[in-house]
Amino acid sequence: MHEVQAVVVKAKNEPAVIETILVPDPGPGEALVDVLTCGVCQTDHHYQVGGVSDDFPFLLGHEATGVVSAVGDGVTEVAVGDRVILNWRAVCGECRACRRGEPWYCFATHNATQKMTLKDGTELSPALGIGAFADKTLVAAGQCTKIDGDLEPEQFAAVGLLGCGVTAGLGAVLNTGALKRGESVAVIGCGGVGTAAIAGAKLGGATSIIAVDVDDDKLATARSFGATHTINAKEQDPVEAVRELTGGNGADLVVDAVGVAATFQQAFEARDLAGRLVLVGVPNPGTTWEIPLDQVFGRGGSIKSAWYGDCLPNRDFPMFVDHYRLGNLDLDGFVSERIGLDDVEPAFAKMRDGKVLRSVVEMEALSTVASGNQQ
């Protein structure tokens, strides 16, 4: 059993605070990970405000890198010393999605069996089955994706963001949206996930990439990640503006990275005939949209939601890390600030105010990591 410092929220809408928690040694199929970095994601805030479940207290944090420090019986995916990106889709290989060859939809993903607890024995619910705002965390071994090759210590903050938000945006375009080279893409909402969708459109060869937001600073950032055009939705009708920029037709692929009824309607109407709409912004519980079935039929195409960008971590993470090394994917640009564990609550406020793409917690263990595998 390991006593470590961690960020916990004990009840709905209470602040995130540092607590001493107990982390067990790994059992069968589990891995103990020394956390190096962890991004502050909107999903963590959803846990804090009760938007995910009422299973308080929550151990927050999930966009993380780390070094495997111990493994349980039967673990073959990773070994002690491996540097890893954590993920929340450890596929089972046996559910109906996995059996039909679509493991990125796995309906029975694995988490650690044992529970991390407060010192008094109260069981913690780790965010997305990870709980990485902590010096150590316990996960299912399949939640670890090995990072091969060299990385400098300062690069871990960037690649760790592949664990959730950045991959969600990249995958919404490349996987769910099935982007083809030369197509046009419009992205509504240019926070962290929307900006990642723009980066994905550039990576996938889109020739017209239209960023839509109400904040000029976010639109400027979108341009730095590959947007060829920007639209401030406070100043002009975004649907008409997208159509004007696409020969009057609408975009081949439109991504709603906000997830409210108004932006979903805009995304629906900004598509070309037979165009695709991908919802990657997470709606609040109870959000509804009045569906005009005649338009759904008449416009054709598809309307899909992106679960984790339809990502398969052991397939996609290494590919994205390679693109990062090659200079094709600016993961460093997503890191707005590097902070400590005690800065998580202020980071939530900055995120809500749109002042950062990502704040990233850097743990003390990061100072001991050098390039290459740690053995």
Automatic annotation (TrEMBL):
Cofactor(s) this protein requires: Zn(2+)
Pfam families reported for this sequence: ADH_N, ADH_zinc_N
Domain called Enoyl reductase (ER): residue spans: 16-361
Keyword annotations from UniProtKB, A to Z: Metal-binding, Oxidoreductase, Zinc
PROSITE patterns noted in UniProt: ADH_ZINC
One term of GO molecular function: zinc ion binding
Top EC category: oxidoreductase
The keyword Hydrolase is annotated on this UniProt entry: no
Database matches in InterPro entries: ADH-like_C, ADH-like_N, ADH_Zn_CS, ER, GroES-like_sf, MycoS_dep_FDH, NAD(P)-bd_dom_sf
Top-level taxonomic group: Bacteria
Record EC number: 1.1.1.306
Family: Belongs to the zinc-containing alcohol dehydrogenase family.
Protein name: S-(Hydroxymethyl)mycothiol dehydrogenase
Organism per entry: Kocuria subflava
